[in-house]
C-alpha cells in the first residue's frame, strides 16, 4: 500500500468539548492516598474535567467542527465515533450523536482505545477513497464512569472530553501522506475493563510498551510518507503521560518542544486526546497551512496508530 493510493481527502476544521466540572489533584488527594506533587511529577497532570455523557460531549464537539467547516450538515455521508466508553452496549453511541446533530448518514462506533481517533481519521480517508464526500470523525469519552475512584493507581489519570474533525474529499492528492495501525492483543491484561466493572491497569507494563508502540507507529508512518522525523513541524501525541511522550520523542529524535500537550488540564481522555491536543495547537496558531503533522496514539489492546498529514484546514 502506498500513501498516494489512500489520499484525496483533507481535514477541514476541528471542534472540541470538555465537561464543566474540574477535578484537581488537590481534590483527588482528599479521595485517595496521593499528593498534587506526586501526580504532577509522575504524569504531568494538574487537573482534569469529568461529567456528561459520551454522546453529549461528542455532539458538542461535532457541532463546533461542522460550524467551523461552514458546510451543510446534509453533505456529511458518515459519522465515525471513536470511543471506548459508549453510553450503551446497543445501539452504537454514534447513532445517538447522529440524531442529536440532525445528520442523515451512516454512523458507527470504533473502539481502538486511545488510538481510536487516529484509526477513525485513517478510516475516513479510506471511505472517501471509496466514494464518500464528507466524513465526521469524533473521539469522545466518559472514562470517569469506568474509573475506580478508590484506586490511586488509575483514578489520577483518566478523564472525560471530546474532539471532532470534518474530513472532505479533495481534487488533489489530499493531506494524508503516511499511516500505520497496529495491535498487540497479547498485552490485553495490562489494561482492561470488564462489563459493569472498573478499569484495571498495570501502569509500568503500559508505560514501557507505550513508548515502544508509539515509536514504531511513528516510524512506520514516516517511512510511508517518505519523510524523516526532522520533516515534522508538530507532533500531536496521545495524552497519557508527559513522561511517555518525552521518552518517545527522544527515541524518535524529535524535540519535546515540537509536541502539543494538553494533559496538564485534561488528563487522559483516550480517544479524545489527539483532537483536543490538535485543536489546542491550532487555536494557539502553532498549526499553519502546509505544516507537516505527526498524529500518534496508543492504548489498551495494545493498539497504536499514527498518521502523517499536511495541515490544509481552516
Ligand atoms: N500517589 C502516590 N503514590 C502512588 C500513586 C499515587 N497516585 N500511585 C502509585 N503510587 C505508589 C505505588 O504504590 C508505588 O509505591 P511503592 O514503591 O511503595 O510500591 C510507587 O508509587 C511507584 O509506583 P509505580 O507504579 O512504579 O509508579 P510509576 O512511576 O510507574 O507511575 C503511573 C505510575 C503514573 C500509573 C505510570 O506507570 C503510568 O503513567 N503508566 C502508563 C499508564 C497509561 O498511560 N495508561 C493509559 C494508556 S492509554 C489507554 O488505553 C487508556
Give the key terms.
314 residues; alpha/beta; Peroxisomal Thiolase, Chain A, domain 1; 2 domains; 5-stranded mixed sheet; 4-stranded mixed sheet; disordered N terminus
Please describe what this structure looks like.
- With 314 residues, the chain is of the alpha/beta class.
- The protein folds into two domains: 3-169, Peroxisomal Thiolase, Chain A, domain 1 (3-Layer(aba) Sandwich); 176-310, Peroxisomal Thiolase, Chain A, domain 1.
- Helices cover 32% and strands 24% of the residues.
- Strands 1-7-6-4-5 form a five-stranded mixed β-sheet, sandwiched between helices. Strands 8-13-12-11 form a four-stranded mixed β-sheet, with helices on both faces. It has a two-stranded antiparallel ribbon with strand order 2-3.
- Helix 3 crosses helix 4 and helix 6 runs parallel beside helix 7.
- It is globular, with a radius of gyration of 18 Å.
- The two termini are 29 Å apart.
- The structure holds acetyl coenzyme *A.
- Acetyl coenzyme *A (ACO) is lined by residues 34, 38, 42-43, 113-114, 152-153, 156-157, 191, 201, 203-204, 206-207, 210, 240-241, 268, 270, 299-300.
- Residues 34, 38, 42-43, 113-114, 152-153, 156-157, 191, 201, 203-204, 206-207, 210, 240-241, 268, 270, 299-300 line the site of acetyl coenzyme *A (ACO).
Brief write-up:
This protein has helices at residues 25-29, 36-43, 54-69, 93-101, 116-129, 203-224, 242-252, 263-266, 273-283, and strands at 9-17, 22-24, 47-49, 78-82, 106-110, 134-142, 160-169, 176-183, 191-192, 200-201, 234-237, 292-299, 303-310. It is α/β, with parallel strands linked by helices and 314 residues long.
Amino acid at each position: 500500500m502506498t500513501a498516494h493510493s489512500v489520499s484525496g481527502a483533507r481535514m477541514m476544521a476541528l471542534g472540541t468539548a470538555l465537561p464543566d466540572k474540574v477535578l484537581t489533584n488537590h481534590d483527588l488527594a482528599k479521595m485517595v492516598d496521593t499528593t498534587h506533587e506526586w501526580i504532577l511529577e509522575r504524569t504531568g497532570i494538574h487537573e482534569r474535567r469529568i461529567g456528561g455523557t459520551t454522546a453529549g460531549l461528542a455532539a458538542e464537539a461535532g457541532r463546533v467542527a461542522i460550524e467551523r467547516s461552514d458546510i451543510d450538515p446534509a453533505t456529511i455521508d458518515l459519522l465515525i465515533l471513536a470511543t471506548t466508553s459508549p453510553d450503551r452496549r446497543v445501539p452504537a453511541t454514534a447513532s445517538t450523536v447522529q440524531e442529536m446533530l440532525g445528520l442523515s448518514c451512516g454512523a458507527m462506533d470504533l473502539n481502538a482505545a486511545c488510538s481510536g481517533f487516529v484509526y477513525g481519521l485513517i478510516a475516513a480517508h479510506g471511505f472517501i477513497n471509496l466514494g464518500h464526500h464528507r466524513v465526521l470523525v469524533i473521539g469522545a469519552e466518559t472514562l470517569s464512569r469506568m474509573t475506580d475512584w478508590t484506586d490511586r493507581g488509575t483514578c489520577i489519570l483518566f478523564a472525560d472530553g471530546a474532539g471532532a474533525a470534518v474530513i472532505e474529499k479533495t481534487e488533489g492528492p489530499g493531506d494524508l501522506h503516511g499511516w500505520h495501525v497496529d495491535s498487540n492483543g497479547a498485552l490485553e491484561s495490562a489494561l482492561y475493563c470488564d462489563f459493569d466493572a472498573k478499569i484495571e491497569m498495570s501502569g509500568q507494563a503500559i508505560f514501557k510498551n507505550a513508548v515502544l508502540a508509539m515509536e514504531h507507529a511513528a516510524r512506520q508512518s514516516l517511512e510511508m510518507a517518505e519523510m524523516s522525523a526532522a520533516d515534522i513541524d508538530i507532533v500531536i501525541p496521545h495524552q497519557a503521560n508527559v513522561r511517555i511522550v518525552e521518552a518517545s520523542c527522544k527515541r524518535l529524535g524529535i524535540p519535546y518542544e515540537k509536541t502539543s500537550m494538553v494533559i496538564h488540564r485534561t488528563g487522559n481522555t483516550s480517544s479524545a486526546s489527539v483532537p483536543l491536543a490538535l485543536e489546542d495547537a491550532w487555536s494557539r496558531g502553532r498549526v499553519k497551512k502546509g505544516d507537516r503533522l505527526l498524529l500518534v496514539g496508543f492504548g489498551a489492546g495494545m493498539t497504536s496508530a499514527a498518521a502523517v498529514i499536511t495541515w490544509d484546514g481552516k
